[in-house]
Design goal:
The chain is of the alpha/beta class and 621 residues long. Among the domains are: 13-195 and 337-357, ABC transporter transmembrane region fold; 196-309; 455-533, Rossmann fold. It has helices at residues 21-29, 38-69, 83-90, 95-140, 144-149, 152-194, 196-243, 245-250, 254-306, 312-353, 418-425, 448-452, 469-474, 482-491, 495-499, 518-532, 548-562, 597-601, 606-620; strands at 377-384, 395-402, 407-411, 433-438, 441-442, 455-458, 536-540, 566-570, 582-587, 590-595.
Length: 621
């Protein structure tokens, strides 16, 4: 059966849902992704039925081979009269002929099995590829409020584990379920055809054994899951310890970490030993029950053979069919569990697909002349609180104006609402009241993608994608030429350090750009923004964590970037925004004061106090 998927912490990542008509109906709605392949799907169903049928012929031919080797088996069985079944029971083939039939049956079964696996895998892979694309596209179109409430690991898990669970259901579980149903029906038909008396005896034993096997199996799976969770916890301890090894050694806590790890692994030992008791009891029970049941059925069958009521070949045929039916019946427990997980996965996926995303373009677009920005921005009495914290008003009454080409600096204490203003500018969120205007038009008059296409963001914590420097710069303008990329890097003061690398622009930056220094990452991000050539630029404390040399290079690059475009600069180091056209001091969700650097320094206000505090600190250091 398909294995249960576990997340990075070892927990079962496959959600389960109750099997109900509503949940099954919702799951079947996802079969629309298989609609283009419906003809192949019908053929796959046919091959599943043929595979089950040909598998069931093997015990029949094997019984006939044994009958061919036993003298007197061609004599009609007493008490059986008339009908097609009598002819089939008493038909006689030689050993060689029966062997030929067996190989023909195995050949046909091989072809049918191959075709069902191949077709369902192809259908599942192609259908799930379309579903993955739709889910990923939907997630990318979700608003920032969605990501504020969801964990990245959870979303990644939905794309990986949930969709893989659905894929397994289509490619494997669904096929095995249908095959098991066909096998069960055919097997029951044959055992009743061979002997109704033995069939009733067998059916009195098999369900009891199967139910007890399900109970034992469920308990063992839970204990195994618990052991995996505990083992994952011990792995987490190791990971945390090695990541913080400097702190461990600095606090001389090696003994504490060893004790913590030992406690965790011995908990795994206890769970494993308990699980071993259940598994041992289960194996012993199954050995006794299965072989005891077979022995009891054989005993009754042999008595019937001795009484002339049954042929020895039919008895062997019956036993094999009984084992086939029993194992198939027991397998439904795992299939039931997989079905629950699949229903849970489809609920998660449908929840995403039915969500309302932002009206963003999911294809590359060009800025239309009607929506071209000139860089004039107005905030008119903006109030805002985040959807997850409606009781906390971040912005209370913000009104400001930025004209084309002006540099607007936003300063103030942490939590004052500076970054929130830029988030509203990018329309990550909508204001609770008030209106934002671009070139005199309400923000709502611009298609979202058209608006963001003309803005660029250089954040404090630079995010570079795993790839080359060239790919990261070209992210600002996919399809840019090498000359355009180099020109952007030169303006960002990045070309010199890039050229010093052996692989130059093809240098791989590593995960999150970790192979580059902070200043180098900043300049690559600036080059990315320069290449985009935005009308409105947003700089969110772009130099706050750099050393003096890097800060100077980055500041020069930023000045090149800000030329001729409207810029909103969130500044931590106030020395970097002294030449700003307007400085807005944000405090407790309102604009406490505004003006140029000189104007604000001539007042005894918050800006002056912040400057004096930074000056005093710089003197001390």
């Amino acid at each position: 059966m398909a294995k249960s998927r576990r997340d990075n912490n070892g927990n079962d990542a496959s959600p389960k849902a109750k099997i109900s008509r509503e949940n099954i109906s919702q799951a079947l709605s996802l079969f629309k992704y298989l609609k283009p392949y419906r003809i192949k799907f019908v053929w796959a169903l046919l091959f599943i039925a043929l595979s089950a049928f040909t598998t069931s012929l093997f015990p029949l031919f094997l019984g006939k081979m044994i009958d061919a080797a036993v003298p007197g088996t061609t004599i009609p069985v007493a008490g059986n009269t008339g009908g097609l079944g009598l002819d089939l029971k008493n038909i006689h083939w030689s050993v060689n002929t029966t062997l030929l039939f067996i190989f023909l049956q195995l050949g046909a079964q091989t072809i049918f099995s191959f075709m069902r696996v191949y077709l369902l895998t192809e259908i599942g892979e192609k259908g799930l590829a379309r579903m993955r694309q739709d889910v990923y596209s939907k997630l990318l179109s979700m608003p920032m409020s969605f990501y504020a409430e969801k964990r990245v690991g959870e979303l990644s898990n939905r794309i990986s584990s949930d969709l893989s669970q659905i894929q397994d259901a289509i490619s494997f579980t669904f096929a095995e379920f249908l095959r098991a149903v066909f096998t069960l029906i055919i097997g029951l038909f044959f055992i009743f055809w061979v002997s109704t008396k033995l069939a009733l005896i067998m059916l009195a034993v098999v369900p009891v054994v199967a139910v007890l096997a399900v109970v034992f199996g469920s308990r063992i799976r839970k204990m195994s899951g618990k052991a995996q969770d505990q083992l994952a916890e011990s792995g987490t301890i190791v990971q945390e310890t090695f990541q913080g090894i400097a702190i461990v050694k600095a606090f001389t806590n090696e003994y504490y970490e060893i004790a913590r790890y030992a406690k965790s692994i011995y908990a795994v030992v206890q769970t494993a030993i308990t699980n071993a008791r259940y598994r041992g009891a289960f194996i012993a029970f199954m050995i006794f029950s299965v072989f005891g049941g077979i022995a009891f059925v054989m005993w009754n069958g042999i008595n019937m053979v001795q009484a002339g009521e049954l042929k020895i070949g039919l008895l062997v045929m019956f036993v094999i069919f009984s084992v086939l039916v029993g194992t198939t019946f027991a397998g439904f427990a795992d299939m039931f569990s997989q079905l629950q997980k699949t229903l849970g996965a489809t609920q998660s996926i449908r929840e995403i697909l039915r969500s309302d995303g932002e009206p963003v373009a999911l294809n590359d677009i060009m800025v239309e002349p009607a929506f071209t920005l000139h860089g004039n921005v107005t905030f008119d009495h903006i109030a805002f609180s985040y959807p997850s914290r409606k009781d906390v008003q971040v912005l209370k009454d913000i009104s400001l104006t930025a004209n084309n080409g002006e540099q607007i600096a936003l300063v103030g204490p942490s939590g004052a609402g500076k970054s929130t203003i830029t988030s509203l500018l990018l329309r990550f969120y909508k204001p609770d009241s008030g209106t934002i205007f671009f070139d005199g038009k309400p923000a709502a008059a611009f298609p979202l993608s058209q608006l963001r296409k003309q803005m660029a963001l250089v954040p404090q914590d630079i995010i570079l994608f795993g790839g080359t420097i060239k790919e990261n710069i070209a992210y600002g303008k996919p399809g840019a030429t090498d000359a355009e990329i180099i020109a952007a890097a030169e303006k960002a003061n990045a070309h010199l350090f890039i050229s010093s690398f052996p692989e130059k622009y093809d240098t791989v930056v590593g995960e999150h750009g970790m192979k580059l220094s902070g200043g180098q990452r900043q300049r690559v991000a600036i080059a990315r923004a320069i290449l985009k050539n935005p009308s409105i630029l947003i700089l969110d404390e772009a130099t706050s964590s750099l050393d003096s040399e890097s800060e100077q290079l980055v500041q020069e690059a930023l000045e090149n970037l800000m030329k001729g475009r409207t810029s909103f600069v969130i500044a931590h180091r106030l020395s970097t925004i002294r030449n700003a056209d307007k400085i807005m001091v944000i405090d407790k969700g309102v604009i406490a004061e505004s003006g140029t650097h000189n104007e604000l320094m001539n007042r005894n206000g918050l800006y002056r106090r912040l400057n004096e505090m930074q000056f005093d600190i710089s003197e001390l250091t």
